[in-house]
Amino acid sequence: MKLFKTLTTAASAAAIVASTAFTASAETTNLRIQTHFSPETLSGKMAAEFIEDVTAMSNGEIAIEMFYSSSVVKSAETFDAAATGILDCDMTGGAYQTGKNPAFQFAGDLNGGYANPYQQYAWLLHGGGYDALNELYNAHNMEFVGWWIPGPESLSSTSPIRGVDDFKDWKFRSPPGIITMIFKNLGASPIVMDFNEIFTALETGIIDGADAANLTNNIGLGLYDIAKHTNYPGFHSMPADHLACRKDVWDGMPAHHQAILKVGMQALGLKNTSINEVQNAKNSVKLAEEGLNMYEWSPEEMGKYRAAVQTAWVEFATTPESKALLESHLTFLRGMGAME
């Protein structure tokens, strides 16, 4: 009888320990995230797939409520909304925050520096990118988690864009940041406006064109219904959209949740870049057949643009943080032989 009681007590204790361990492991993370993409665009659909992946990998421990089309605050305000607790995470892009520090430009788009997204991911993964970016993000109460890069963007325009000369007096929607400086120097008239105001501005003639997204996402935005001119392949910009979360939210997550989100973003990056590459190629054929005017710039015109870009990099990097981040990118590119 004594032995039976001992065994029963031991079994009960083991059950309590097992129960406690199970309860402790079942930690939950609830995140409110905003993206500027609509759910109908390819990038919006990829964001939804990211949520599905994270939910599956965490066995439901990470729950994400996604706000599409910048439905809570304007796109450029998403970062602050996350940093101050209105949201938990920002899934727009670093270049929206250049007003805080021009270094955020080099946290999102080197404008003509990288030839393709895979080079840019390589800097992040193998060139010290995570640490370099979080020196900047942490100073603003945010944690950089990852990038997803759709690839080189294509301009949309209601008039031809065959080369630099066609940018003279061209009014176009521009995101904030270095791109306004580059295009002003080329004779254009950039107008900074929210991502979700572009269609109406084009429709009403406020702008002649837009720097919005790549070929496929421009279709999703309906821009080619109005603007019958574009350039392909894209060259002027290759912004990296980010996932960044408020620092206390990130630090409060268990380590395995942090790992799931980080790896989930790396998976999203690969899937997003590769599907955009495929869809852009297919859509370029379809759009040409439908009569959209598509321009591939000559090496001479590309040379004029790249010269303007490299001048703008130096002019834009006015803070210690921006100079350090730019130099990190350039050192990596030179080390690969991708830049002199």
What topology emerges from the helices and strands here?
Blueprint lengths: L1 H24 L3 E7 L6 H16 L4 E6 L10 H6 L5 E3 L25 H10 L2 H10 L3 E7 L7 E2 L13 E4 L3 H8 L3 E4 L5 H6 L5 E2 L4 H6 L8 E3 L9 E6 H5 L3 H35 L3 E3 L3 H18 L3 H16 L5
Parallel strand pairs: 1-2, 1-3, 6-7, 6-8, 9-11
Antiparallel strand pairs: 3-10, 4-10, 5-8, 5-9
Helix pairs in contact: 2-10, 6-11
Main features:
2 domains, D-Maltodextrin-Binding Protein, domain 2, 14% strand, 340 residues, 12 helices, 6-stranded mixed beta sheet, 5-stranded mixed beta sheet, alpha/beta
Beta-strand residue percentage = 5-15%
Question: Using DSSP, what is the number of strands?
Answer: 11
Q: What is the CA-based Rg, rounded?
A: 23 Å
- Protein structure class: alpha/beta
**Unreliable spans:** 1-25
Please describe the biggest sheet, giving its number of strands, its sense, and whether it closes into a barrel.
6 strands, mixed
According to CATH, the fold-level topology of the largest domain is: D-Maltodextrin-Binding Protein, domain 2
What is the H/E order?
HEHEHEHHEEEHEHEHEEHHEHH
**Count of separate DSSP helical elements:** 12
What number of domains?
A: 2
